[in-house]
């Protein structure tokens, strides 16, 4: 959110193994010593034994902020996915999962070519934009 740059990973599954590999990717992307804050939903892979074991190898590197379990919460990643769907995936036909993966990765490259930092605004009337 700070730089507008997106670090992505397109996987067939969302298990602890894939999540830990993504954390390792983030760790290698950002300079050592920076604390990486991640907003997460309450998926079991985010709190699994495997994830906790990895986090112990990089103490203080990551801070997880979990969305509420029971309630509607505007999630910036949902906004990003909606925008990606509208701009890059709507009304297309792909021949394979590999082609879909390539299209998503191409979109991420295009976003990162001209990153736009997200600016959260909260209005006095309670509106979020």
TrEMBL record:
- The lineage's top-level taxon is Bacteria
The record's listing under Pfam families reads:
DDE_3 (PF13358)
Q: Start and end of every Tc1-like transposase DDE domain?
A: 5-101
- Output this protein's name: IS630 family transposase
Q: Which species does this protein come from? A: Marinicrinis lubricantis
